[in-house]
Structure formats: structure tokens, C-alpha cells
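Try this one yourself first.
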């Protein structure tokens, strides 16, 4: 195989090359694709580098404590696993293999509605793994919710999620329709061309996430939120779901404020890994906007960010600007594809080591010391 030895993966970006070398082309495209000309994804990756630290020195950083709490659940690090659908296309062990890595390293994860395995199967395997670890503060799974169009089905799904023991509902609100996934379009066009069709039969409206419908055992792929959803729906959702609610995919200060007014427990600033709206803002830009226009949101809600995070140091930047924790997506998916749960564990270790070294070099010993004066965001804001 062309697969490098796992020890050669020393940064979160190394897993992509490894995955590319071993995954079927179609699977790699599924993981890596982004919207339109790729500017949303590029912005996510680049904006972390536009924030600079303002480190303090001589602060006795012998011992550092990188623990935090996510929706009340203790986490060893302020990052968690982002929800990603159809993991069966990436690894034969699918979601259970991914969450095995998460449990072993003690980090929390959000499970996608569009998973290959059912939410019951995923939780059952998770609990088995969990029990073998015997942790004092166990890790948890949250549930990423694409709301079905039909309200009866929507309520039934919430019932299942609750019964399974998922600890919070993360409603994805940036996907009323799937974005234009350009690499998927090329793939569809090539496949159609190869069999002599003018244009792919699979419609452009459904987009690329449906390319894996057969891998889902013929189940309908719920790869999007009901496009009819409005803010008012939060009122009845709140009656049906008594656990925490996080809106995933908030992209401006006005909507952050609305989420607060509608009583959400958290918001996740995200542009879906650059897979939805063309030239959407990065989570860091939205976070800065919130700091300016409605800073009260940062006090009242748990604010999470995701998109393009590839280095443990970057987690600290988000926390200094007021985020509670950061979601990591593709690096874990590539690690899973190339090395299974061992790769996922290694990816957690890589990020955790960078984070702890970063804390020391920044001059802090616990995460409650993260504050705006430790970063300079002027390049991000003025460029
Ligand atoms: C996603 N994402 C996603 N989000 C969601 O709410 N439901 C889902 O089913 C999926 N599926 C999915 C599949 C794949 C292959 C990717 C790469 C992403 C978005 C995900 O939760 C997260 O917002 C981004 O992946 C974060 O960006 P990075 O870390 O991948 O750059």
C-alpha cells in the first residue's frame, strides 16, 4: 500500500494525503468536496492564520489544564467531533469505528442524521465501548438533527433520539437545500459520460450526498433540513425536546441574537465546512461580528465554532474570542478512512499536544484564562 505509517502523521493535515492514497476516488471526493469554486472552504482554512497571538511570558506554565465543559459534560479538551454523514463510504466500520476513537480518547461527538448506521445501532456500540473504558466522567454523544418535512416524523425521530440517550439536539440550519458540491458534479458527469449519457440522471437538486444512497441500504438519505423550517418551529420543538438545543450553522450576528431570544442553549457558528453557501463567512468572522454587535450572546449561550481547524493552537484563538469549544470534521474523517479508529485516536493526540504546547507558549495554565487581549484579530477584520 501507499499508506504512510501512522507515526508519520504528525499534524492533522497529514491524514488527508494518507486518505487520498487509500480511499476509492469517490469516497475521497465525498469527504473533500466543497461548494462552488471552493472559496468558503478556503476562507475557513485561511482565516485561522489571520488571527495572531499576543502571548504573555514568565507565567509559570509548568502544569496546564486543558479541560472544559460542553453543555455541562466534562471534556478533556475544548474540541469535539463534528457530525458527518455516510461514514460507511469512508470505512467499513462506519460510525461505530469513528466513535470508538472518540471514546478511547475521551472526547464528545455529534452524530449525523445522515449516518450509515441507525441511531440505535450507533448508541448501542458506543455504550459497549464506553463500558470497557470505565471513566469517571463518561463521554457523550449529541445528535445532529436534520428535521424531516413531516412533523409527525420529526417528533417521532426526536423520541428515538431521546430514548437512545443522546444528550443534546444540534439542529443544522444552514442546509435548507444542499449546496452545489462541485467535485461531485464532475464525478457525476464523468460517470454519465462513461456510460454514454449526455447528462447525469441523478438530478442536480439532490446533489452529491445522495451518491451514497446504495451504501445506506436503500434508506432515504436525509441530507438536509426541511426547507420549510422557520424560527417559529423552535417553539414546538422545544415542547417535544427537553434537553439542550444548539443551532448549527449560524452565520451572522442577527441570527445569533434570534437564537438567544428563542431560548436556544447554544449556537454553532459554521458554514458546514464550506460545503453550502458560496463565499459564506468563516466561523471566526461570525464570531468577531457577534463580539461587536451582540456580545451578550457570548455570555448567555454556549457558542461553538467549526470549519477549517487543523491545529490545536487555533482552538485557543476561538476560545480567546469567546467560543466554548471547537468542532473538528474532515481531519477525523480522513484519519478514519486511512487508519480506522487508531488514526482517529492519533488525530486527537496530535491536536491535544499542540493545544497544550500552545497554552504554555501563550502563557496560560487553564482555559478560563483565555481572553480577547491574548489575540490580535485586526488582520482578519481589516483585510
Ligand atoms: C459534513 N458536515 C455535516 N454537517 C451536518 O450538520 N450534518 C451532516 O450530515 C454533515 N455531513 C458532513 C459530511 C462531510 C463529509 C463533511 C466534510 C462535513 C459538516 C460538519 O459537521 C462540519 O460543519 C464541518 O465538517 C467542519 O469543517 P471541517 O473541520 O471539515 O473543515
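Now uncover the answer:
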Amino acid at each position: 500500500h501507499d499508506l504512510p505509517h501512522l507515526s508519520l502523521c504528525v499534524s492533522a493535515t497529514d491524514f488527508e494525503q494518507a486518505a487520498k492514497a487509500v480511499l476509492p476516488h469517490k469516497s475521497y471526493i465525498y469527504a473533500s468536496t466543497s461548494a462552488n469554486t471552493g472559496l468558503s472552504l478556503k476562507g475557513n482554512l485561511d482565516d485561522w492564520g489571520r488571527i495572531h497571538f499576543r502571548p504573555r511570558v514568565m507565567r509559570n506554565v509548568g502544569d496546564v489544564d486543558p479541560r472544559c465543559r460542553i453543555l455541562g459534560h466534562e471534556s478533556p479538551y475544548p474540541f469535539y467531533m463534528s457530525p458527518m454523514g455516510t461514514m460507511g463510504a469512508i470505512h467499513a466500520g462506519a460510525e461505530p469505528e469513528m466513535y470508538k476513537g472518540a471514546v478511547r480518547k475521551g472526547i464528545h461527538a455529534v452524530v449525523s442524521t445522515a449516518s450509515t448506521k441507525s441511531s440505535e445501532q450507533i448508541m448501542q456500540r458506543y455504550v459497549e465501548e464506553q463500558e470497557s473504558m470505565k471513566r469517571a466522567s463518561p463521554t457523550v454523544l449529541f445528535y445532529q438533527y436534520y428535521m424531516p418535512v413531516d412533523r409527525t416524523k420529526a417528533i417521532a425521530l426526536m423520541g428515538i433520539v431521546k430514548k437512545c440517550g443522546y444528550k443534546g439536539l444540534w439542529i443544522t440550519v444552514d442546509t435548507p437545500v444542499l449546496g452545489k458540491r462541485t467535485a461531485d458534479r464532475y464525478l457525476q458527469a464523468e460517470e454519465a459520460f462513461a456510460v454514454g449519457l449526455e447528462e447525469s440522471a441523478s438530478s442536480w437538486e439532490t446533489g452529491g450526498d445522495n451518491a451514497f444512497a446504495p451504501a445506506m441500504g436503500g434508506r432515504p438519505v436525509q441530507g438536509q433540513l426541511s426547507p420549510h423550517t422557520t424560527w417559529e418551529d423552535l417553539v414546538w420543538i422545544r415542547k417535544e425536546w427537553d434537553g439542550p438545543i444548539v443551532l448549527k450553522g449560524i452565520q451572522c450576528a442577527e441570527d445569533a441574537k434570534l437564537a438567544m431570544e428563542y431560548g436556544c442553549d447554544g449556537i454553532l457558528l459554521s458554514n458546514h465546512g464550506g460545503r453550502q453557501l458560496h463565499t459564506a463567512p468563516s466561523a471566526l468572522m461570525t464570531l468577531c461580528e457577534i463580539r461587536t454587535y451582540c456580545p451578550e450572546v457570548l455570555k448567555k449561550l454556549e457558542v461553538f465554532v467549526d470549519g477549517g481547524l487543523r491545529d490545536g493552537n487555533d482552538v485557543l484563538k476561538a476560545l480567546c474570542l469567546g467560543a466554548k469549544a471547537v468542532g473538528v470534521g474532515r481531519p477525523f474523517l480522513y484519519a478514519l478512512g486511512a487508519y480506522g479508529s487508531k488514526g482517529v485516536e492519533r488525530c486527537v493526540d496530535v491536536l491535544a499536544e499542540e493545544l497544550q504546547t500552545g497554552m504554555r507558549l501563550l502563557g496560560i495554565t487553564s482555559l478560563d484564562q483565555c481572553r480577547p487581549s491574548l489575540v490580535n484579530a485586526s488582520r482578519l477584520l481589516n483585510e
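Discussion: The first helix runs from residue 14 to 22. Residues 30-31, 44, 82-85, 112, 114, 144, 172, 248, 270, 272-273, 306-309, 327-330, 333 surround FNR (CB under 6 Å).
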